Amino acid sequence: MAKEVQELLGISMEKVREMVSADTVIGTPLVIDGVTLIPVSRITCGLLGGGADQLSKNATFAGGSGAGIHVVPLAFLVVRNGQVSVQPIKSNPDAYDAVISLIPGTVDKLVDVINDITAAHREKKEQ
Question: Burial of 110 by CB count in 10 Å (0-12 exposed, 13-18 middle, 19+ buried)?
Fold first, then answer.
């Protein structure tokens, strides 16, 4: 059984290697009007496999394997006039990004509430 599972996993890994390479993470540079754009992506891979033997008198092995790949574009490296900069690509924000984006507005509201409470307290003291 171990040999069969190894073969299944080997085939899956070979397919993953065909799809994912360093050129997938750091893409092929594009030159447009003297500006070089180099795409940068994040890749997540998963691979699994398993099998069983002696299922019945007629079937001595059954098994399977699978793989999944998720590629997310993150940014472009921009090379212009010898200077390099990073231009992030904002895709769908995750929960972390959503929480971070709420912080400035929340702080502003909190400051307004504190100022209102302080002003009300001063008015009471003056009366």
Answer: exposed
Taking alpha carbons only, the member of 54, 27, 28 closest to residue 43 is 27
Q: Which amino acid is at 105?
A: G
* Inter-residue contact 35 to 85 (CB < 8 Å): no
Give the tens place of pLDDT for each residue, 2-14. Answer: 667 677 677 777 7
Task: Give 26's DSSP letter.
Answer: B
Number of neighbours of residue 9 by Cβ within 10 angstroms: 19
The rounded distance, in Å, linking the Cα atoms of 90 and 103 is 18
Of the candidates 99, 82, 4, 86, the one whose C-alpha atom is nearest the C-alpha of residue 50 is 4
The pTM of this model reads 0.48
